[in-house]
Amino acid sequence: MNPQGPLIVQSDRTLLLDVHNPDAEKCRADLIRFATLVKSPEHVHTYRIDSISLWNAVSMGMSAQETLDTLERWSRFPVPDSVVFSVGDIASRWGKAFLTEADGAIRLTVNDPVIKAALLHHRETMRILTPQEDGSFLLEKYNRGEIKLQMTKLGYPVDDRIPLLKGEPVEMAIKESGSFHLRPYQIEASHALLGDGGSGSGFGVLVLPCGSGKTIVGMQIMASLKTRTLVLTTNIAAVHQWMREISEKMEIDPALVGEYTGEKKEIKPVTVSTYQVLTWRADRGDPFTHLDLLASGNWGLVIYDEVHMLPAPVFKVTAALQAVHRVGLTATLVREDGRQEEVFSLVGPKRYDAPWDVLASGGFIAQAYCHEIRIPLPVDQEVPYAIAEGREKYRIASENPAKYEVVRQLIAQHEGDYILVIGQYLDQLEEISRRTGFPIITGRTPNARREELYQRFRSGTLHVLIVSKVANFAIDLPDASVAIQVSGTFGSRSEEAQRLGRILRPKRQSSHFYTLVSRYTSEEDFSQNRQKFLAEQGYTYDIEIWGSS
Predict the structure, then answer these.
(1) How far apart are CA 422 and CA 536, in angstroms?
(2) For residues 185 and 149, which has the higher predicted lDDT (pLDDT)?
(3) What whole-number distance in Å separates Cα of residue 202 and Cα of residue 164?
(4) Region for 529 from its dihedrals, namely left if φ exceeds 0, alpha if ψ lies in -120 to 50, beta otherwise
(5) Pairing of strands 257-260, 440-441
């Protein structure tokens, strides 16, 4: 116990960090190894110790006793007995079940009679396990990921001790020169994933803020492994961005890099594709035509860009790719479908998490100011809104025509800045484009036209671009410093983070993120939920009532 410590440990395993304490930053650096940030408003930040966060820590070599010692070192009051017990109990489950190779199959060894009993009475696990006389279980190699998933759901994570296979070698290296050099945290993230190259390393998730160079981290891992690589990302613009970055920042024969999209079907030693292509099928009942690219490409490394967007069909193939080096890149592991445990089981545990505020204070991402502008509904919209049902209410509020004038004034206020107007509803965005005269990018915009507009924005010949949700992910527009969000996907926290991320590339001036919300409507409630993740990262929204003096 430390009476002057910055931490209060509560019996429900939540941790309260006094950010004004002189030791707060040192404490925070310790906490992120085994606890999950819940929220971080101005004065007290809240963390939680849960099963996944503890298993993440143990998988990286941090024992339960080290966790408890850390709590004791920083806690202002005695650590509750219930926390001592639960930390020890949860952490002890790691390593009681582990996988090893067994003559063409895989052996699951369980050193705990309670876990073994749970397995024997669990239909999903016994469907793929064959009990052995020595008390272990055998399973087919293709069920390696499935058993890890099922065991995590049971509350008993599997320690996968089978070394990863070496893929076909491909010569490549990072090309540091001029203004481009790897940043310290990018090197740390790569090392956190790859470790010493032994069993238990080479797979997992790296969490870095938007604008911090996740693509660079992926390329550093590629350069370290020098193996046949498949990169999966969210859309064709992101594919081209990856290929452009590889071309500019890696020493690799251009003939070895290919694009597998709706426009091209190249399979090269380094191939960049989209989740959309992999999960395409002609009809709902048809097979996924291109999913074999993932399963049978003889890859040595698979990079899942924006891993929190991993589609359900790809989970199934990812479960079979447990012998392959794999990394998930994301700014947030928030999944609105609650499938974080599947990412943990199949891609791997969180290996690195770079706090947004730390990178912002170091100048690695832009300082950003968030503003929520609440706008009254026009009188003629009040009755239609009152009698509408839930989804229709939200749409009426989102498409509030009073927002058009606010957008116009914000664009005028930031004249000379690079501005993105972002929204969910195409009719609304097209009307903004018509009123302002600025071009628009939606899902219907041909890829060539998208690339042309993105390039004009990057080159400085276009200062305002109107974009739908196709620009939420993996689009590099480094000079963007203002984002005006006119509508969003209900309460999607990850979308809020991604949209803010469009303006976080480091630059001389601060960035501004505006969210336009209809006052006294359901849009206010959804907006508050959307902002939760950013509040957890230390961002605050100032609120302005439009038209008030």
Answers:
(1) 22
(2) 185
(3) 7
(4) alpha
(5) unpaired
Concatenated DSSP letters of 434-502: HHH---EE-TTS-HHHHHHHHHHHHHTS--EEEE-GGGSSS---TT--EEEE---STT-HHHHHHHHHT
Task: Give burial (CB, 10 Å; 0-12/13-18/19+) of 498.
Answer: buried
Residue with tokens 């445990």: 341
- Cα(56)–Cα(352) distance, integer angstroms: 10
Contact 409, 546 (CB under 8 A): no
Q: How many residues does the chain have?
A: 549
Give me 440's structure tokens.
């628009």
Tokens representing 26 are 């040192």
Provide the β-strand partners of residue 232. Answer: 273, 304
Tokens of 266: 């190249």
Give the residue carrying structure tokens 């230390």.
Answer: 538
The side-by-side arrangement of strands in the sheet containing 511-518 is 440-441, 464-467, 419-422, 482-485, 511-518, 368-375, 541-545
Question: Residue 335: helix, strand or coil by DSSP?
Answer: coil
Q: Residues 119, 45: contact at Cβ < 8 Å?
A: no
Backbone angles phi, psi at 536, to 5 degrees: -65, -25
- Residue 209 contacts residue 37 (beta carbons within 8 Å): no
pLDDT tens, residue by residue, 514-536: 999 999 998 888 887 777 767 76
Q: What is the pLDDT of residues 272-317, one digit of tens each?
A: 998 888 777 767 666 666 767 777 778 999 999 988 777 767 776 7
The backbone torsions φ and ψ at residue 180, rounded to the nearest 5 degrees and listed phi first, read: -100, 120
H/E element, 47: strand 44-48
Q: What is the pTM of this model?
A: 0.77
